[in-house]
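User: quick one
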Amino acid sequence: MKTFFFTPESPRSLALVRIGVGLLFLYEFGVRWPYSVELYSSDGLPMPFFPGTLLEPAALGWLPTSALHAALLFALLAVTIGWYTTPSLLIACLISTWLGLLDGPGTFNKYSVIGLHLMMLLSVSRCGWAWSVDALVDRRTSCHLAAAWPRRLIQLFLCNVYLGAAITKLRMAHFMTGDLVEFSLLDNHWGCTAFGLWLFEHRELLGPASVATLVFEFSFPVLVWIPRLRWMLLACAAAFHVTIGMALHLGIFSPLMLVSLLAFVNDSDLSRLRILPTPDSSTTDDGRWRRRSLLIYVTLFCLWLVAALVYRQYQESYKGRDSIELATADGNVVETMLLEQKPAYEDYFHRFEIGSRINGFRTSGETQQFQSGMTVHGLARLADNHPSLDLDWLLIAADGREAARLSKTLDASFAYATAGFELTEELPPGQYRIILMADGYEVARKSFQLEPRH
Amino acid sequence: MQSGTRQPHLRRAAAVFCIGLYLLANVFFLVRNSVGATGPDPWAYFFTWDMYPFYRTTSSRPLAFGRTKNGTCVELLPSPLQEFRWGLDGTATRTDMDRGFRYTSSTIRKVLRSSKHADHNPIVHVYVIEEYWPARFNLPDDVYSRTIDWPPRSAGQSNPRRKYWKVLEEFDVEFGGTGR
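Assistant: Done. Structure below.
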């Protein structure tokens, strides 16, 4: 244990994590800078994540909020280039928590918390000792070794993230069926990416992909510690996060996880990469540059703050937040909305499929051509808001007559409905249909060809 | 400090304390999540990794309209105060992203206070409406027509994009623009 946590090592891999985290959160809060007043100030629309608790920070006026936001951007820039790294990380951690907690829907989420853990753990590390302004200015620290424990804690933290996510998924009834992924791909806020739509068109992959996700999330925290398997696990993790990043619009989540995985890269791995510069280990520092560096840091910080506030003052003078003009709405449209018309019956259904086999919550095998003696299974996936429904499953023969009917009542708490028809020898070959009716209304139909047994 | 190998005892003790505390917190909340013990504890959010805790089979967003004294309808949500947009197509406001409609009322109150209508033609009644639709209607037309082939009325056709509405709340507005 002592060796695990306290072996001296180069801080270069954590320096890479530092640069990545700094850049990502610089982007995250940079794109929110124009909306700072709306998101985080009492003059805008703050939406505290934990209202009425100790974790609800005070929303300040637009000027101090803008000052905080500007200070955060400066601190994140300083983190990226490794300039007064530890204080900059602490400032960034503190202000991003403050601002994030003031905006639940738009800023604060799980990846924000992952970022806060990383910033906090980096702040107790020596990540500013490599590839940083600090290392250039204070050459006493350059290329020296530091205890491994901050990097070990980041590694353990990542294992905990994967394990926690796996346990959550395992406890969900519809994760293994692929339903969770399928509906996430369709989400109107974070779904419907080009790759996500391709996956949706190949829904047969979603079940196996869900199982593979669980296998990966359970195995990573165990196997990544085996030296021979480490690179394989890291490659799997990278592929996993790239896939998530392509399939879902989750902000900086995937890049952040990729960056944090760099904590598993050893210094010996980095040494093999000759494209990375080797820190200068000369010790010619005489202390003058350290004093100048502090002066330059403080001066630039003040200049940045003033520039940001002048810009914000200029921007706010055109806003007029206290006298907004509301758009006129069409009264007829509003009246239609107030009628609260119930959804069409078919809109209570999400998916309808037929097949010669049912595997869990999917059909498989033959879907178009069946032979006498086989069973044709119908499966319907319903939306969660459906009422209790009287379902009728009809098997319609080629000549239009009703060959069979199955009726059952589906309680509102059920998400799936299934039925199976045995295709006996008495049924003549031809084009058949399975029709599903809900409360007497046709909601779904599928055709198939029945052929005589060969 | 020249090297990590010669740390003073105090520094080492502090490090051991930090390591222990951090690991303990992580293990505690991991076990808590494993046994399904979730309570109204905001601190748990910082240590619980329950990504993908839910999914929705329908999509929805809140809308709000105000009826003015002379009978005109005005849009309260989305409002001009909401400039920040998110989502894949960059159109979702924060109240759209707030799945539980936790911030709808406070946003409407703020919009009412900031509205010019308060002076000459005040808003007297507010309707808060949930607009919802099946998640499959989020598909682009071409993907929809290729993949959704079972509805009897629209098989093989482009996405019908039907929408439905539910009144979440309605209330009268007092003079000065706040909910009664």
